[in-house]
Amino acid sequence: MFLKLRREKKRHFLLSVFYKLDKLFPLVKQKKLKLYLDLAWIFDRLAHEKSSSVIENHAVLMESFGFLKSKLRKEFNVLDLGCHTGLITSMIADNTKTAVGIDHNTVHILKAQQTFRQENIQFIHGEAFEYLQQNKTTFDVLILSHLLEHLDEPAPFLENFKKYFRFIYI
Known about the structure:
Layout: H1 13-24, H2 29-54, H3 59-71, E1 77-81, H4 87-93, E2 98-103, H5 106-115, E3 121-125, H6 128-134, E4 141-143, H7 154-161, E5 167-169
Parallel strand pairs: 1-2, 1-4, 2-3, 4-5
């Protein structure tokens, strides 16, 4: 005897495709699990990045800023390395003496310069280490927001920067 139940929700096309692909993969269960966990992390990361560009006042961003704000002082000079389009740089500028955002992407820096115009804020296109070596400003805080995970060797990177700052926010 065969019992057919009515399906309550529509099939998700991609899920159906992945179920079929799962049957075709000749991997052992442990390797499949590792692959799927890696994919879960990748898609979670992509979803987070997309959500923070779509959702204004994103909860993770606001929580990070709240923590930073509690540690910043009005007399601090802050460098936001990998500032992207300057949102975090702008947010901290209201709580510091100066805020400098630096990024290697020209388009991001141009957008930051057009969007945020506080008097104590500056956006630089370039490499941070070169900027620090050429600049006479002493900085109190280095902000590395979503940057270290892109580096193969973060320890030497941090070692190069720590002599320029009293505090590093990761």
